[in-house]
Every structure is written in structure tokens, then in C-alpha cells.
Amino acid sequence: MPLSKFDGPAGMRDRMRDTLLVHRNELVSLLSRYVAKGKGILQAHELVGELVNIIKEDETMQKLNDSPFVEVLESAQEAIVLPPFVGMALRPRPGVWEYVRVNVYELSVDNLSVSEYLQFKEELVDGECNGKYVLELDFEPFNASFPRPTRSSSIGNGVQFLNRHLSSIMFRNKESLEPLLDFLRTHKHDGHAMMLNERIQSISKLQSALSRAEEHLSKFPPDAPSSDFEFR
Questions:
Q1: What's the angle, vertex CA 100, arms to CA 94 and CA 102, rounded to 5?
Q2: What are the residue ranges spanned by the domains of the chain?
Q3: For residues 64 and 55, is the Cβ–Cβ distance under 8 A?
Q4: Class level of CATH domain 173-220
Q5: Maximum alpha-carbon separation in the chain
Q6: What is the pLDDT of residue 172?
Q7: Contact between residue 58 and residue 109 where contact means Cβ atoms under 8 Å apart
Q8: Residue limits of the Sucrose synthase N-terminal domain (predicted)?
Q9: N or C: which end of the chain has fewer CB within 10 A?
Q10: Which of 39, 37, 29 is nearest to 107 (CA)?
Q11: Best CATH choice for the domain 11-126 from the list 2.115.10.20, 3.40.50.11900, 3.10.450.330, 3.30.497.10
Q12: pTM metric for this prediction
């Protein structure tokens, strides 16, 4: 299967690359253990188990346990081993999936799209194919008008999500949201901005900031004092 040119989310891929830069030998030793098991599927507990075993055998491998690669393993749902490749399905948070593939011999890391990952997985049984005669069914048109949650916090809170979705229908274009942005920017107390600072000058920046803030706040318990995060 040729190397992917898919330019998707780079979060987990970057963590693996960072680990390769700093702990190349240690990560190669671990990945080589996966490859040595031969062609097949490794479950999440098997991936973590190999890390635990290699640390027990060599204390210097503890470096891996303190590296960004641990986040990759903690989010891994499965790994596909097709030597010299190891492909992983990663779920860093609810509703968010990433797919990466490592060439253990060349030490290269690539993102895969969903279809590329499934094709890679199918090669376990069918072997490498050119993809010219693959049947694909597109069900997307059936879901075109159905609202989809884009934030992890919406999962499990369907009623709240639909309420927000219905409310947003009143603001179908960004121009209609400008008055709200102006209100939030001018809301002050004793000369200090209460809602937004001067760095947020557009609706797109507000949406991006809200997404990052929600992800950051999710790491704190509900009863955490504001002093723990007010300057972030």
C-alpha cells in the first residue's frame, strides 16, 4: 500500500514524531515488538502490555512512559500490523478519531483517512490491491440535513445539543452574530473586559477560542475554583 498523502489532523501524528526525535531507539524497540508478532490485529491492552513488559526488562525504556507517545497508546483502540507498517486507530476524546501509520523501518509517520485505514485493514485478508474495483457506498446524502454534534461535550447530551441547534437557526449567517460579538467585547466592569479580550476580533476567532476553552476546562473538576484557570 503506498504512503498516504492524506493531510488530516496532525495531533497524534506529531506526538509520535516528537517521540521519534527524542527517544528514537526506545520507540523503535517497542514498535519492533509489535512488528515481530507478525501480521494481525493488536488490541489496546496488548499495546500497553508490551510497553509495560519492555520497561520491566530494561529500566532505560522508562523514557517512553514519560514521552508524548503515552498519549497515543492511551487513546489507541487497536493496531494493524502489516510489517513493516503499524497502523493505529486512535480515539483521543469522545467522538474524535485519528488514524496513523508508522513505517518501523523508515521511521516515517503518516495520517490516514478513514477509507485508507479500512483499506489497510483489509489487506490483512486480501493482500495489497490497486483499489480500481472496490465497491463503495456513499450514505452521506441521507444524513445531509441531520444535525451532527461537533464537540465532545455534546455526546450524551442530545436534547441540549438539539436545543442549541434549533436556537442557532435564528442566526444562519455570521453577519447576524456580529451584534452579539460587539456586546461581549464591550461588556466591562471597572474598565476590565468581562467576556472577551482584544485578541478576539471576529466570529471565527470566537468559535475557535470557545472550542479551546471548553477542551481546557474539561480537565478540571466541576468544583475547581476560577483561580485555577482564570489566566489561561
A1: 150
A2: 11-126, 173-220
A3: yes
A4: mainly alpha
A5: 69
A6: 62
A7: no
A8: 11-122
A9: C
A10: 29
A11: 3.10.450.330
A12: 0.62
